[in-house]
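One such shown below:

_____
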Amino acid sequence: MSEQAKGLWQAVGAYTAWGLLPIYFKLLHGVPATQILAHRILWSVILLAVLVVALRRVGAIRAAARGRTLALLCASATLIAINWLTYIWAVGHEHVLEASLGYFINPLLNVALGMLVLGERVGRVQLAAVGIAAAGVVVMAVSGGGSVWISLLLAFSFGVYGLIRKVAAIDALGGLTVETLILVAPALAVIGWAQADGTGAFGTSGHTDLLLILAGAITAVPLLLFAAAAKRLRYATLGLFQYLAPTLQLMQAVLLFGEPLRAYHIAAFALIWAGCALYALAGWRSARVAAA
């Protein structure tokens, strides 16, 4: 299998897993978002440590995580923690629609970041697609969609996170391991404080404990797939796969969780979908010309 084909399958796996995350977080209803985040970090560290030791990667990761690379990973760790916390809070407070909107914005934000930061060439059609999607965000912001901040924070935190991980000189496993190690001290503090004052979720039931422990695999596996895909694909190409996750999230919000689909949601989604479709069409035409 070619490197590009591997990247394509890794992207599909990552975004499908992320698209199903609301169901998992709904099962943890009643657990504070900060505690869910802390357990995601803690159990991810344990899982990743086992993988790193088993694969004999400790020395290589230690050698890579220095200087500029370590500074970049500190930044990406902060961004992914913000993204996780925002998403968990959104699901727990009936804002899955706004979360899905954020991840519909994300692909076109990647186009803009690829152009502005990485110097990737973008045609006029792609620029128009970004502009149409931006209009959708404006419509939601001025039409009563007060929770648009959720959409924007999710889009920007994950967009910049992916950009940093693309340019950081470390592989997927090493980068994620260092990121979670950077975050593990605050995570332990949150868990310890909650357990000490009697509000800790862990230990209250076997069902909750199992879900919190599984947070490690649910967190680590999609991120490893995403980071690996980002190394193999053009950053703008990743945008084409990001439609998978928000589409699944949108369907769950309306069909499973009963969130109301208001007029400003429909208008915003219509504009953003139009931008995504225009960008996809431009990419398809470019691929046909290149193959001819």
Notes: The chain has a mean pLDDT of 85.
